[in-house]
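Example 3.2
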Amino acid sequence: MHKPPTDKPNPGKPIEGSGWAGGGFPKELLEAARVNNLLKQGKLFEIGDMGKTAIPALACVLKGDDINMRKSAVEALGRIGDASAVPLLVECLKDEDMRRNAAWALGKIAEKGGDCSAAIPALIECLKDENAHVRAYAAVALGKIADTHAKEVASIIIQYVNGNGGDGLLVTDEKTSQMVDLLNSLLLKCGEAMEHAAA
């Protein structure tokens, strides 16, 4: 009589042809599952505590269709506070639904000392956004970037004013007046920061 095989499956043994180097699930997959679960539960501070390791999983969430998950992912990036997330957030500034959250997150990264200078041009464009919250968060972010990158902020503002952006500043409406005031305030702050650094 034919006897059934006595070999028991080994859960720690990699599946042949799977491409996995070891047993069980790949670390990246487990990390992504954990990040997604925390996002759904609104535990953004816990994701922040995970640090840079959570950024790849959050980047994947940003490619999804769930707007609430995407907004939470952006907030989580701000709480992580690592400058490697800046390119992702600059892309989010192009999305009207994500702009407010992205500007806030960039401000948080800059506040923690991260280099957000790559976001300066996009944040300046946000100063003329129709949404007052977007304008406010962009102004805050630029101010925090100016604390450590005053020369870069001042240089890009001057380029903006002397370039194509300058024509738009000639429009006489309340929003444009606010933008002019913000740019002047930022230039003043940059000047003070550079003087302090040179002292």
